[in-house]
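Example: Nitroreductase family protein.
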Amino acid sequence: MSASEQSLSTVIRERHSVRKYDPDYKISKEELEDILKEATLAPSSSNLQPWQFLVIQDEETKKELRAIANNQEQVETSSAVIAILGDLEMYENVEKVYRSAHEAGFMDEANMNRLIEGTNKTYPLAPTEVRANIASFDAGLVAMQLMLIAKARGYDTVPMGGFDKQKFRERFNVSDRYIPVVLIALGKAAEPAFQTTRLPLEDVVRFI
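Written out as structure tokens, the predicted fold is:
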């Protein structure tokens, strides 16, 4: 195992969901931006990157969010809560995504135009449920990447799917274009994480 593989393995093994945070510890906006920038290197369907992030640091706002999130303490005591929203109209990003790739020299103009045309012929016509599934799946990928990056930087996280999504929409003026997928509390642990086990591999894996 190489040093880089060992380092990644350590991060994966040491990342656990933490629910007790030091309420006095603050993470700078600049570092949060660095974490998010790395997280958005996650893969996505057709590279359309169907995610938006709402970073909540204001103490009074976190108190309001705690009530929306089933009174989970970590919402209020963590340094920040990052809400990940899935974009149901991810195809609106197509010009920016593929033109950027073309300008970076990753594809020629003909391929760029072909991909833009193909995307505009398929994604807008897909049922909302299909696009919601794509957006939710891709939001899950970026969420996991974010949590591993945070752990590698010495922080802890916990993902939360248990919150009132309609009340969240109303409080934070989330348009119908976006679906709230998950909240991630991020900060410095005040207590060790609760340890868990996993099912034996033979219970979940089949080799064919």
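Residues 3-204 form a domain with the NADH Oxidase fold (CATH 3.40.109.10).
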